[in-house]
Amino acid sequence: MNPRIVAAIFWKDFLDAIRNAYILVSLILPVGMSLLFGLFLPGGGNTALLTVAVYDPGHSRLVQSLGDNPTIGISAVGSVEEVAASVNSGTSAGLVLAADFDTELAAGKTPPLSFYYSSSQNSALSAAIRQVVERELRAEAGQDLPAKITSIDVNEGGRRGQRRNV
Predict the structure, then answer these.
(1) Model pTM above 0.70
(2) Tell me, what's the pLDDT at 8?
(3) How far apart are the C-alpha atoms of 115 and 95, rounded to whole Å?
(4) What 3-state DSSP class applies to 39?
(5) CA 22 – CA 106 distance, rounded (Å)
(6) 95 burial via Cβ count (<10 Å: 0-12, 13-18, 19+)
(7) Which domains, from first to last, does the chain contain?
């Protein structure tokens, strides 16, 4: 095929597309959205989108497997109070695991796991983190619901928070 004919057809179609507003918008919209997302989500996908404050005195495999997830950043803290303070100051969510979490999980028991979230933040982020935690728990224990998860809202006055068992 002759390159001059191909170029002529391309330019004719390109100029027709510019004249038609619907086609022009459909060509420009993906480029514009890509630039817009690049401004709001910088880092090229190398940074974690969700940050989880974790108090894990037993160094559980659950925290290690969550850390392997590229969308979740783990922030280890030294106490339960630090988890609540971290979530209250902007961390996406928090987890508090028992010291013998892995041992109880391996024994077929349902160890406690506290999930801290803030109702003043985006609830979709908390739901996404909770879903990832539940999926990792199921994969690790090989059962349907291996832990009793308690959700604690850090914005409930000066009290420890509102508890909701799942």
Answers:
(1) no
(2) 94
(3) 5
(4) helix
(5) 59
(6) buried
(7) 3-40 (no CATH), 50-165 (3.40.1710.10)
